[in-house]
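Box 3.1. Reading complex inputs
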Amino acid sequence: MRILDVRGLVAGYEPGLAIVKGASIHADAGEIVVILGPNGAGKSSLIKAIAGLVPVSGGQVMLDGRDITGVPAHLMVRQGLAFVPQTENIFPLLTVAENLAVSGGVLPRAEVAGRVGEMFAMFPDLARQSRLMAGSLSGGQRQMLAVARALLVRPRVLMLDEPSAGLSPILVQQVFARLAEIRQAGLTIVLVEQNARAALAIGDRAYVLVEGREAHEGRAATLWDDPIIAELYLGQRRAS
Amino acid sequence: MSLQFLLDGVLSGSMIGLGAIGVTLTYSILRFSNFAHGDFMAWGAYAALAVVGALGGSTALKPLSFGLPLLVALVVAMGLTALLALALDWALFARLRARGQSIIVVMASFGASMALRSLLEFIFTSRPTYFSRAIQMAQPVGLGIKITADQVALLITTMVLVTAMALFLARSQRGREMRAYSQNPALAQVVGIDVSKVVRTTWIIGAALACAAGVMVGVLVQIRPLMGLSLLLPMFAAAILGGIGSVTGAVLGGLIIGLSEAAAVQFIGGEWRAAVSFVILMAVLLVRPMGLFGVAER
């Protein structure tokens, strides 16, 4: 069942200067979809545009059959779309528990404390530090907190912008293993990544974005060995 | 040597601190220095005066100089001042904020300040007026300090308002949202925080507390259209000294400014009172720009 359907999306920060130039991607229920591409391909801009953070000038974003194109960013969570930005994705001067609770404004008030407890059960490492300022967490813990905060509101689709950025290889493995676990619960995940090998290892399908639109789509398991991909994007990495 | 200046300092510091809460919230959440904030104090005081008049004057609750009508007027005036701030934001600041240039919003607040002040002079004249002309007897409380019942009541009111404000910001969902928004507006939107509600709450709280401070100045000193302007520099000094965004810092900053001013009057001379805020402001900006409770990471 198709959950997220993006058709011919055109978006950019300045009028007339599109960064996303007619991209079309989709994600089915329970899938992990990976978006790869060289620097400047518009990967981050694409998911920010889907999340309502970059002005959209053309195309359509459908979530669960509803048109959510141009819905303001703060209403996307209510539509069922959660987004974890690449950097500055936590509030450093709120405690860990407050970081979770602050996103609970979209839930019925009586549910918030229970959901925070459920997130702490899912991420025990965060529970142990619930009263600490989030700014004192390590890079991996911050990323986990950002993911937990996004999950708190029970989204249909979770979108992450380079969750491995700035993390050590061991932490990258841990973060991706946790994302794979989360998917087991039926959540649909859309992942923008520079770390192609790690992302493809947990992904079901992948798109390669070049110059603001998808240049290739394929199964994540076989994409790494696809010669077209090597030509479009991965050649240098694979050689190394 | 009389220690009366300590009480004077705490009293004026309380009013400065209450006003500085609005200054610090406006700066950290709406990202501009609102030079019209002092005029919310003056408008609040005059609104309370008008309501007291409409209620048929104040029957004093002895030993206080004021009675129930002023308490009712305070609550009504806080609401009216909040409405004034919301109207000003709708008509002026929100439109300019949307253009993304905060210096234009700051300049607009200068203009709004002058307009609000002139309007008060037009309606009420520039002649000072009072909630009550009754003379209160101060009671000695030791160490050569004397205090009136009004002063005790106002100190208690300040403590209640500041405690309520601190609890609101720390415990309530909207309080958390305001703190989150002040740290990272873009992320606040991503987590589903409704910016317009945060902005409205900021104006309501800032204006209501400014009104309370204005009414206190009116009870203890006098009411005049320039009352807010004369407290503007001390309020900004208190907000910056305490650390932008910190309510505790704003109140503590207010108390330090108030005590410093009172000490200057006692030990140097009354003409130096106004210079104290400026000196403290400069010293903080040079030595610790993030203030007492501010943090470098934002």
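In summary: Chain A is about 40% helix and 25% strand.
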